[in-house]
Amino acid sequence: MAGLAALLVSIRHQTGALCTLQAVAVPHPPHSPPQPSHTQTFSTSRSVPACHSPGEDTEVSEPGGAQKLQEERKTLGKRPKEGEESGDLSPLNSDESRSERLAQPRPARRETLREMALCSKMSRLVEATSLLVQVEQTLLLPLLQQHPLSLHPKDSIEFRNICSHMALQREGQQFERDLHEAHQCLKTIIEKLICSLAVSPSDSYIPVRSALRQILRDLLAV
C-alpha cells in the first residue's frame, strides 16, 4: 500500500505542475499601438495655419482708396484661399495619413527560431505531463492495488516546484533554464517508473511500460 499512496501523491503533484505549465504556455496578448482619438485628429486638422494673400494689409492714400480697398477685400474674401485651387492640402493630408497609419494594426512580429524551439519544447512538456498522468491514473493505479510496487514522490514534488518557479519568469534565460530542468526532471520520473516496472515479475505491467516508453520518445523528440 506504500507504493499506492506514493503514486497518489505523485499524481497530485504532477497534476499541479500540469496546470501551471498550461497557464505558462498561453501566449501573451499582442500589444496594440495606441489609437488616436477623434479629438486629437480634429485638433490636428484645425491647427493648420490659414494662408494670407500678400497686400491685404497695404495702406492706400489715394482718394476713395478706402472704399476701393474694402471692395478688394470683399473680392478676396470670396476667392478660395491660396493653395485650395490647386488642391494643395499637403499639411492636412500628411496629418490624416499619419493618423490612418497609426490606426491600422501593425503586422505581428515573426517568431525567431529560438522562440519557435522554446515553444515546441514547452508543448512537448505539457503533452508528456498530461499523458503521464493519464497512464498513471488509468493503467498503473489499478495494477498497484494487486501488485505492490516501490515508488517515491520526491521527483514529482521537485517537478512541480520547478514548474512553479518557471511561472514566475515567463521569459529570459532563467525561464529557459527552468524549462530545461523541467524536461530533465520529467524524463527522470518516466525512466524511474519504467525501471521499477521492469523488475516486477508481473506481465501486467508490460502495457504500462510500453505506454511510458512512447511518452518518453515524444518528450525527447527534436
Q: How would you summarize what this structure contains?
A:
With 222 residues, the chain is an all-alpha fold. The protein is built from 8 helices and no strands.
Describe the structure.
The two termini are 38 Å apart. This protein has eight helices and no strands. It is mainly alpha-helical and 222 residues long. It has a domain at 1-25 and 112-220. The protein is elongated, with a radius of gyration of 37 Å. It has helices spanning 2-25, 38-46, 65-78, 90-103, 113-144, 154-169, 172-198, 206-219. The relative contact order is 0.16. Helix 1 packs antiparallel against helix 5 and helix 6 (154-169) runs antiparallel to helix 7 (172-198).
